[in-house]
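Sample 3 of the quickstart, ligand flavin mononucleotide:
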Amino acid sequence: MSPRLLHFNAFIWPNGYHESAWRLADDDVRNVLGLPYFADIARTAERGMLDSIFLADNVAIAEYRATHLPQVQFDPIAVLSALAASTEHIGLIGTGSTTYNEPWELARRFATLDHLSGGRAGWNIVTTVTPLAAASFGQRGHPDHADRYERAEEFVAVASQIWDSWADDAIVGDRDGGVWADRAKLRAADHHGRYFDVEGVQPFPRSPQGRPVLVLAGQSGAGVRLAARHAEMAFSGPPSLEAAVAFRTDLHAQAAAWGRNPEQVLVLPALMVTIGGTEAEARARAERLEELSSSEFRWQNALYTAGLDPDAFDPDAPLPATLWQDPSPSTRTDQLFAAARARPDASLREIARRVTGGAGQTHFVGTPEQLADHVMTWQDAGAVDGFTIMGSTLPYELTAFVDHVVPILQRRHRFRTEYTGPTLRDHLGLARPDV
Ligand SMILES: Cc1cc2nc3c(=O)[nH]c(=O)nc-3n(C[C@H](O)[C@H](O)[C@H](O)COP(=O)(O)O)c2cc1C
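Result:
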């Protein structure tokens, strides 16, 4: 049996995913605030025939980040809607929080994107780790992890009812008879649950893909359970090959237990890449990025991505034991607390160095050949269906990936040489859900 084609999702993070990337970019720092910056990157990804581009979402930001990193947390769906007009094929995946949105409103926005893009929308379902968002939304507190995932489960069920509230063949278009759509083919959402009460039909017909492609990046037990039930693409995955095989096997077994076909659950973990023409060149690029990084940023970021407020801590003192003795509120908090438990006397600044970056990704540094070998090894081991590629700098790494890695994988018959259908589901080989 010939190996299956790989899938690639390009994570667009302004200037690149490495915290120092913006300091190496030589154009105006404000460029990341304009549509041309995003459109150029999206078109590069499309030139490489990648499956999709991806935008993260953090509904609120901590002020410390403004010092250290470009702050460009636009509304992803608004940006992707604009990119729908400047691209033709590439999938458009955006993040939407189930904790800080209402199902009606978010389902409608993603279905709008799916219509406007001709069936290219994907929704990365997140529950939002940072507690800062609560204050922005006038809420007293950030719900705990279990509560967030319970709400997410109900949210997805309601969103699906909204998307499915028009039958695919509801539009009649009978000008003579004066019938635009067959009302009998509408079935209003009618949901009354613990978190939501939603009734009504989506204010426009079902979108080209029926539902946007559902994506999840949860790593905890609850996160993986939600993915097993609903996700068609998973972004998470542990850094070692053996653990990644176990992760995908477990996700697929859980999906099968829900009566789903595991082949319809693709695993594309995040992989930060730094590419060079030679290994030495790639290493020099990665080292330069590290040299420019700040220990101030690292400790604050380790707390922030763990859902803690950096302003409340002293970086030169150990992380208070009272904190890490309690159960961790999230996977990322686990990583920080495990580092603190391993070295209880070390300062926060020191333990922060041991914690991985924001999305828990691994960092690949090497040549296009080496990267092609790496992704094929992981695919052949059954660890992945592809990767979510995070250029340590952008657009440089993505351009290098498209111009040098993609052709190698095409020659080895591991990557498409043309798009075979118009929708993101077509690119990914995912079935279109029935009503
Ligand atoms: C590639 C990737 C992208 C992510 N994007 C976001 C995001 O945009 N917004 C967000 O709040 N969380 C994001 N996350 C975090 C996950 O949704 C999730 O909360 C995290 O992996 C921890 O898992 P858990 O929620 O099961 O504990 C991302 C994670 C990964 C691996």
